[in-house]
Amino acid sequence: MTAMEFTAKSLAQLLKGTVEGDENATATKFAKIEHGKPGTLSFFANPKYEPFVYTSKASILIVNKDFVPKEPVTPTLVRVENAYSAIADLLKYVADKKKKAKCHRSLRARWFLSTHFGKRVYLGAFSYVGRHTTVGDNTIIHEQVYIGENCTIGSNCIFYPGVRIYPGMVIGNNVILHSGVVIGADGFGNAPRPDGSWEKIEHLGNVIIGNDVEIGANTTVDRAQMESTIIGNGVRIDNLCMIAHNVVIGDHTAMAAQTGIAGSTEVGKYCIFGGQVGIAGHVKIADHTTIMAQGGVIGNIKEEGQVLLGSPAIAARTFMKAYALFKRSAES
Predict the structure, then answer these.
(1) Which of 82, 102, 244, 308 sits between 20 and 30 A of 60, alpha carbons compared?
(2) What is the tens place of the pLDDT at every residue in 175-205?
(3) What global pTM score does this model have?
């Protein structure tokens, strides 16, 4: 995963832990505990994985400081307050180090005199940044990314290869867009003609993405017909999701793959949508709503904190009771 080299001693210093075993044990790669090999670093936090502690051949194993082995252990142990938090911090540390290594603009990329780059921006080969677009400090634009004119891009962003950002979009700080993401395509707006054919409705708005947002591969966020499609701060959107025109998604909402939200819907803050959730247009969803996988929403959800299931979605406990009756009647 990374070419960086750690010793058990340096890890203990970095993670404020202690070493049990060879402090000069070295690891250059991360591995899951069940796949540990010499030269790798693993961690143990979930009790159900304890059997792998005794079979792992990893060079270094991060564990909770109160862990008491029941059998001999091969790896050198680095004991920390919380192994799960420690490995998360370590992964972030490595990722940040890799980001800092990228800070040049390829001669095979294209930009303009009116394009404004902040400090230490990386621009990969065959990428394009349009006129009058501003890119903030420490942003990484990988190869073959298109950013149109008059865009505002924040600091510390990462755009992976193949990202497409249409003209006039606004993207905050610390935003990650994975490969194939399209920001700002026209929404699905068509008006029927008397003869049954369709007339395209032009979309002249934009997309505004807040800070600390991550959007997964091949997800699309459509521009507004007028005004803005808005993705709030801290939102997490998985791969293969579709956000239609004029949708508003509240802060810190998360949605899993293949979720689709139709036009002009307002989603509250801190909502969670499972995979393949479908939401009709022009509805409002209250804060802290959880919609389980394949749930379908066709009307407003006014009460906060509900857990919904089914299509049309109803309270999950009600759905399970109804399903039990349905299944029983089919078997009788």
Answers:
(1) 102
(2) 999 999 999 999 999 999 999 999 999 999 9
(3) 0.81
